[in-house]
Design a protein that fits this description.
The complex is a heterodimer of chains A (426) and B (649).
Chain A (H helix, E strand, L loop, with lengths): L1 H4 L5 H6 L4 H4 L1 H20 L10 H26 L7 H30 L7 H13 L17 H25 L4 H20 L11 E2 L12 H28 L1 H11 L1 H6 L4 H27 L1 E2 L6 H14 L4 H19 L6 E2 L4 E2 L1 H19 L5 H7 L21 H4 L2
Antiparallel strand pairs in A: 1-2, 3-4
Helix pairs in contact in A: 4-10, 5-10, 5-13, 5-14, 5-15, 6-7, 6-8, 6-13, 8-13, 10-13, 14-15
Chain B lengths: L1 H21 L4 H7 L1 H5 L3 H13 L4 H10 L3 E4 L5 E7 L2 E5 L5 E5 L4 E4 L3 H16 L4 H13 L3 H10 L6 H18 L3 H10 L6 H7 L5 E6 L8 E5 L7 H10 L9 H10 L5 E2 L2 E2 L6 H13 L9 H10 L1 E6 L4 H50 L7 H18 L3 H26 L8 H23 L15 E3 L5 E3 H23 L1 H11 L1 H6 L4 H26 L8 H14 L4 H21 L4 H18 L15
Helix pairs in contact in B: 1-4, 1-8, 4-6, 5-6, 6-8, 7-9, 8-9, 9-10, 9-11, 10-16, 12-15, 13-14, 16-20, 16-23, 16-24, 16-25, 17-18, 17-19, 17-23, 17-24, 18-23, 20-21, 21-23, 24-25, 25-26
Classes of the chains: A mainly alpha (426), B alpha+beta (649).
Chain lengths: 426, 649
Amino acid sequence: MTETTQNPVTAPANILHPSGYLRRNPSVLWFLLGLAVLTLAVTLLSPAYGGGGISTSFVKTLGKTLCLCLAALAMDIVWGYTGILSLGHMAFFALGGYMIGQWLMYARTQEIVLQSLVAGPLPPTAEEIAQGVGSQIFGVVGGSDIPLIWGFAHSLPLQLALVVLVPGLLALIFGWLAFRSRVTGVYLSILTQAMTLALSLYLFQNDSGLRGNNGLSGLQNLPGLADVSQDFLSVWFFWASALMLALAYLLLSAVVSGKMGSVLRAIRDDEARVRFLGYPVEGYKLFVFVVTAILCGIAGALYYPQAGIINPAELAPIASIYLAVWVAIGGRGRLYGAVIGAAFVSLLSSWFTGGRAPSIPLGVYTIDWVDWWQVLLGLSFVAVTLWAPKGIGGVFDRFQGLHSPDRKGQPLGPDAGSLQESEAVE
Amino acid sequence: MRAFLLGLAMAFLGLTAHVGPVLAETVAKIVATHARDIEKPSRQTIGPVIADLAGSGDPMAARLLEAWGGKLLGKRKSDGAIFLLAPDAAGYALTDLQGASAGIAANAEITVLKPNAGVRGLIAAALVQFTLSDPDPAKRAEALNSIAKDPNVEALAALRGATANETDPALLARKLRLERLLTLRFDPDPKARVAAIEGFGADAGLDLRAALTPLLATTRIAAVTRPEGANIARSLTVGTDLSAADAYALLVTSGAAPARITREDQKQALAAHIAAGQVAGVPLSELGDQATRDRAYTALEAAGQVPSAATDDEVAKAIAAHGFYDVYTEADATVTAAARSALDRIALKVAAMQAADLSLDGLSLAAIYFLAAIGLAITFGVMGVINMAHGEFITMGAYTGYVVQQIVPGYTASLLVAFPLAFAVTFAAGVGMERLVIRHLYKRPLETLLATFGISIALQQIFKNIFGTQARPLTAPDWLGGALTLNDVISISYIRLAIIVLALLFLGFFLYLMKRTRLGLEVRAVTQNPAMAASMGINPDRINMLTFGLGSGIAGIAGVSIGLYAKVTSELGSDYIVQSFMTVVVGGVGNIWGALAGAGMIGGLQKAIEWLNPSNTLAAQTYMIIFIILFIQFRPRGIIALRGRAAGD
């Protein structure tokens, strides 16, 4: 906290001084504290462990919001720190959801099928079980054979591995191809968007093996825990999401405040110069791209069991754009900015679109927020881009009396390695 | 039966052609001779009578047959005389067999002759010959149509009789063609059929294909020895040509082997024989395995408790003992061979035409992408500004067209108003957006992308609020309806043709604007070096504003033309935005020819992939995007890359 009160011009000396990780990154402590308080409050207010001051569905909404915050953190690293505006990270998020969804759906259906078969006179054969599961899951797309990509769906550890491997490998292949041929800037954005669109169109097909536009459903029911009520499950998932978010925040803030973070920021600010200095820029970018994709996959794997359903519309290109919108509104280039943006905008969004926001009568026309929220969001996004590139995070600077630094290369905000002047005020 | 009918038909053909005029009997006389048969006709006996009537040469014959078939022939009860009837208020107006009117009779005085369906069929067949020679060409053409729709043996004979006296050359050609088509299917002489098939030469008409295909129909049979005398299309190898399961199913349906027991039946049979937790000595708990179940069933079989079912061994033996053949239903091998080679020849020709049709489809799709992308080629390609709201400008143009059609009557007039108005509206929107937002972000391309996304989201929702979520029609005028059809395979709708023309017009306009006008010169100057252009007295702000407005305006016009064939919804534009960017990026940024090449490649490619996998346009788009991502690897700057100073970075 000492550093935040100091004049930013003298800050570099303190950053270089080995005065402890938390001292250099005061936001980490505040963030963890806030998250712990939130978790405690939600637990105590939840119907499962406390007074029931909030409903189960609200616990789920909060849990999902934490997962979105995790995805936003990843997006902040890849965009705010490294300068790669990826419009494909929600695709990785959804892929993670699909991978865990496969196991949830398969194992749960198998349970149900087994129950119904056990009632028969003979014990069921493996073939009968597979056929029962197949027709239960794929009857809706007119099939009963279990496609090859469900080959690991019977095993939780394997599908958990796939949660990491599938988004990771896709990001690796795509990133390797893109970075290798020096696709940068807006071209890369468009290319990632095309990748997302291709993936979503592919999953929309019925013969993609993932139930076409029906998607995977019933994910809120955990196999083997049929008699545990959703009240408890929602809190458990909230804990898991909070834990994951905290771990990711710690990991990422360690990464960006170290040497690696300096290289990443250098790549963002002047890629060519970093390359001339001898750094393997493509390697760094690929690493960041893959790690953030994996993080998004994990976030998705935590999100969709709370949402209960996943379908290809979830990875439409617009979803990834919203992710960028959250990060931008929260304030990119600082980790807490991404978290605040994702939480603020997504909660506000569900408040507005849920029909709970009061309509504004204008005499001749009544502004119904269900219809006009997107307009407001779109326009406020334009406004933030134009006039407040620091986003909500900029408010913290204002509180602490920090000003935009007057020399290129100075950090913004209290943490080492936050957004820099060249990005923020150009 | 067919041979008999054919003989019959030939017989009365002969009568018509040669005997008829000589033995010119009157209808009245024939009716008098065969009165009994006519009153109580049966399919077996009436043939010669109808043939006599048809061959009589009496003009009354056709009227009589028509009346008879239409249940309008009657016998007067008082004297047994036969009359043609016409319904009348008082009963029936009578016409005698010489064609003279014979007054009116009450319903009660007349017995109406009602031939059964079989006889009516024969009458109708005989009548075809009359209609084919009817003095009215329209009736003759209609008769030909009905024969073409339902070809049969009788029609062949009638057709052959009706070609000699045909005067209309077009109808004669149709008659001759139809005659040959019927010959190749129904003529009793294989040589005549082969000759008819070969006579068509390189013809690839739909009717010829329809006539040839049934000749090659096959049935699948199983036989212990190779069937003698059958016209075998091919013999099948179990495993490659048909699966063992299908082969055995064929044996079962032909009665040559007992059916296999299904898994479900086996399970029920086993369940029915559970005794003390065991089935035939196998404990219940072990029956969760197919091999064990088979073993238990075999044990039950041996004990005679269940009907025996074919085991895998028996199935294999039965399959090995039989040969499986596809046999032509057409018995004559020369005919099938001729039909096969003719169809192969046709298939080649049809494939070539399909390729041509496909290229036309690809071309029209390319034109659409080009139209959608050309505005983007200006804003992104020339100015380097990413406008993600470009798709919404396209939608805006389409909605402008819709609104104009609500106000201006007449589709042609409204289109003429809509095009310039759409340009004006989107030009204004583009200029407004440039002034308010993009101007401030010229040095921050990533943020331009985001800000225009914000505008895109807002605009899309505003469209939804104003026009609702349902599709709004933008109707094309009648002269754009229909399609230009070159033959049965190659055709293209006029709307698509118009879009291709429009795309070419825009290409010309753009080239003229950029290379031949002052504005184009200034745009190019500002693009290359704004500071230098400014020092030469060009106002870069104004040029940027105009260029952006122009790009947006063209998007509006593209919107009207796309709206003419696609449904206008608030998501119309966003369906095209990614493809449009792909078009520009693949083609090469900053070059109109690049956009053209990109559109051509993407349009052609998408159609080609759709052709390979026609059921699935989603997959086609997926593969196309993957292809583009890979393509960018090899030509990161697009098909037509700018070189030197113009390339910038």
